[in-house]
Amino acid sequence: MADFREDFEGKVVIVTGAASGLGKATALGFGNAGAKVVVADKKVEEGKEVCSELKGMGTESIFVETDVTSEDSVKNMIDTTLKTFDVLDILINNAGTGGPHLGQPFTRTEAVDWDTSYKVNVRGTFYCCKAVYDLFIKQGHGKIVNMASIAGKTGAAAIPHYSASKAAVINLTQTLAQELAPYGINVNCVCPGLIYTSIWKGLGYLMGKNYPEVFADMSPREVFLATIDKMVPMKREQTEEDIANAAMFLCSDAAKNITAQALNVCGGAEIK
Ligand SMILES: NC(=O)c1ccc[n+]([C@@H]2O[C@H](COP(=O)([O-])OP(=O)(O)OC[C@H]3O[C@@H](n4cnc5c(N)ncnc54)[C@H](O)[C@@H]3O)[C@@H](O)[C@H]2O)c1
Predict the structure, then answer these.
(1) Potential cystine with 113: which of 12, 56, 106, 109 (Cβ 3.0-4.6 Å)?
(2) Domains in the chain, ordered, with CATH?
(3) Of 118, 127, 133, 162, which is the active-site residue?
(4) Residue 192, H or E segment
């Protein structure tokens, strides 16, 4: 993990979807760099465990049960943060989902897939950004990082609704960055490539089942590795820590003149 202690000592950070995967690694990364971390997720047990892990490292941390698809729940996340820590410096919008039918060809996706991925990935990001907009302007500083995906730039077979929702997250980021740039507030995206978290465990299983001509008799992990071989020029998987490092870099002073960007962390998958 990169060392960002000088940037984040004492800063207050919210990470949504921090109960697992990339959000958990990002929360731990900020905690390790001396930030105070708000773990926000709808998964209570796992979220509290991450919070305990942070406290075990000597980090000040609270867990706030949050559903980013509910504007009231998002407002409660911000209010609780401000009641506890007085300020908010950084918002990481990481909560995301692929909906119930990942790993299917386009014509087999259904309205529920499109609605679910847009509701969490796009509307959830919108609610969280809206909730800090006036606060960040009033306090004269703030950083926002939205978790998009390389699929939002290239499109991706087997996850059409998810890809489109992540393209919307990139676009939302560009718009918001334009509005907030005059106030010195940076808004960027990270576009992760392929990381073997719970999303990919489910996707690997479904792709194996739905594309038997390509992935016959492969385990989810084998499907994941075969996809890396096909899609990633660097021929290796990306890690949770790679994504945490990118998110922290975009919130660091070294990136103070970087805004409206969508930083790929994907081993070159966009140029495949
Ligand atoms: N793993 C990858 O390869 C990959 C690639 C590109 C982008 N991403 C994105 O990275 C982010 C993190 O994904 P991950 O791979 O760690 O998956 P994950 O499933 O391990 O983590 C997602 C977290 O978001 C939380 N969440 C989902 N809906 C929520 C809601 N409505 N309110 C609050 N929390 C909610 C979940 O409870 C979970 O803890 C997502 O936005 C995902 O789309 C992941």
Answers:
(1) 109
(2) 5-194+238-271 (3.40.50.720)
(3) 162
(4) strand 186-192
Q: How far, in Å, CA of 175 to CA of 134, rounded?
A: 16
Retrieve residue 266's tokens: 């994907």
Contacts of residue 217, defined as CB under 8 A and 6 or more positions apart, other chains included, come to none
Atom number in ligand 1 closest to CA 243:
10
Spatial CA neighbour of 174 closest among 134, 193, 135, 146: 146
Element (H, E) at 65: strand 61-65
- DSSP, collapsed to helix, strand or coil, labels residue 181 as helix
CA distances from 211 to 13, 158, 201, 204, 231 (A): 41, 9, 15, 10, 16
160 lines ligand 1 (CB under 6 A): no
pLDDT tens-digit profile, the chain (272 residues): 778 999 999 999 999 999 999 999 999 999 999 999 999 999 999 999 999 999 999 999 999 999 999 999 999 999 999 999 999 999 999 999 998 889 999 999 999 999 999 999 999 999 999 999 999 999 999 999 999 999 999 999 999 999 999 999 999 999 999 999 999 999 999 999 999 999 999 999 999 999 999 999 999 999 999 999 999 999 999 999 999 999 999 999 999 999 999 999 999 999 87
Q: For this structure, is 162 an active site residue? A: yes
Testing ligand 1's pocket by substitution, the residue of 66, 166, 199 carrying the most ligand atoms inside 8 A of its CB is 199
CA distance 227 to 205: 13
User: CA 263 to CA 249: how far, in whole Å?
Assistant: 10
**H/E segment holding residue 14:** strand 12-16
243 φ, ψ (degrees, to nearest 5): -75, -40
